[in-house]
Design goal:
By secondary structure, the protein is of the alpha+beta class. It contains two helices and three strands. A three-stranded antiparallel β-sheet has the order 1-3-2.
């Protein structure tokens, strides 16, 4: 966070991708909500789950 001057990072995953969601949670990210019909892929609209972590929260968890 410091090196890049960031305050927050976010990521989006498809709800059925539980493994990717678990990786984000292990990095301290929390699920913030569901984005309905956020992307069009393979002939249809798909929802995405939004995960995020702030620099303060990351430091609390990992001491960096």
């Amino acid at each position: 966070f410091r090196r890049m001057g960031l305050h927050r990072m976010d990521a989006k995953v498809m709800p059925e991708n539980a493994r990717s969601a678990r990786v984000l949670e292990k990095l301290g990210m929390e699920r913030e909500g569901l984005l309905h019909n956020a992307i069009y892929c393979k002939g249809g609209d798909h929802d995405l789950e939004l995960y995020a972590v702030t620099d303060e929260r990351f430091r609390q968890l990992f001491g960096r």
